[in-house]
Amino acid sequence: MKTNLLALQLLITFSSCKTEKKAESETEIIVIGTQHKPVPNFNSDILFDILEEVKPDLILLELDSIKFTPDFKLKEVKENELLASEKYRLKYPTTKLRPFEFEGRNQYRIDKGMRPTDGLTLKLIDSLYKADLLTASEAEIFKAYQDALEPLKVLASNSPKGWNNSKGDSLCEHRQFYQYQMIPKITNAREEFANRFVTKPNGEKISFRNGYQLWANFWDLRNRTMAKNIMTISEKNKGKRIVVLCGFMHRYYILSELKRRIKDKNIVLKEYYEN
């Protein structure tokens, strides 16, 4: 009887140690949606305090690798995320900073003709809307697109916890759906967008219609690439606590991609305020 009891105690102890070991080796990813520029309710000091609470081993930044030195020091420190991350790294020197952005995103958009066609297209739609020249269904789409921005303005005036949650993610997803999925229903149907052009850096012309569609497609490509980059870095830093800092409009997409990609992996997604 004593032998059986001892064996049971050893089994429980072994199982407990095994569970603790598994928990310790679990990789944590905390995606924090941010605002790049300081505003009254969000600045680098507020973000630094959040980092102090989370205590990450690694901070991933929405930057190209060209913004870093060869030993991964920041070349410029201006925006909220960079100021907070650099301050944190200086206080905790073992913390790593790494980029996870789609490499060369700005030049890529220019070279492909997404810019300035994106802004010019939206201005043209707005002028057609104000002149009452859109069809009823087109006007409904554009009004819904405009209206989707209003709750985001309210959201952005809250504390960071106010937009780092499922409700905030849903509002961002709704607005981006209209910008990248519904607006092309207008541009792909009207000849105004097929007959206006900009010239790309290589001298080729691209229509507003095609340029805007490329921009809409790039939203998916960019976010999926960023999520892929996050996963690649996470695989190389198993068992670490990783903070991902991104503009809060990207958060819903990145989280959705990460949830899909972490299946069957020892990775957990957490909110910064769950610690």
- Report low-confidence residues grouped into runs of 5 or more: 10-23
Overall strand count: 7
Query: What is the percent of helical residues?
Result: 55-70%
The chain-level mean pLDDT equals 92
Order of H and E elements = HEHEHEHHHHHHEEHEHE
Output the CATH class name of the largest domain. Answer: Alpha Beta
Radius of gyration: 23 Å
Question: Within the largest sheet, what's the order of strands?
Answer: 3-2-6-1-7
CATH topology of the largest domain: Protein-Tyrosine Phosphatase, Chain A
Oligomeric state: single chain
Largest sheet: 5 strands, parallel
Number of helices: 11
The figure for the number of domains is: 2
Sheet-strand content, in percent, reads 5-15%
CATH architecture of the largest domain: Alpha-Beta Complex
The first-to-last residue Cα distance is 43 Å
* Overall shape: globular
Query: What structural category arises from helix and sheet content?
Result: alpha/beta
Protein name: TraB family protein
Explain the overall architecture:
The protein has 275 residues and is of the alpha/beta class. It has two domains: 27-105 and 224-274, Alpha-Beta Complex (Protein-Tyrosine Phosphatase, Chain A); 113-219. The protein contains eleven helices and seven strands. The strands form two sheets. A five-stranded parallel β-sheet has the order 3-2-6-1-7, sandwiched between helices. A two-stranded antiparallel sheet has the order 4-5. Helix 6 runs antiparallel to helix 9 (166-187). The longest helix is centred in the C-terminal third of the chain and has 28 residues, at 208-235. The chain is globular. This is TraB family protein.
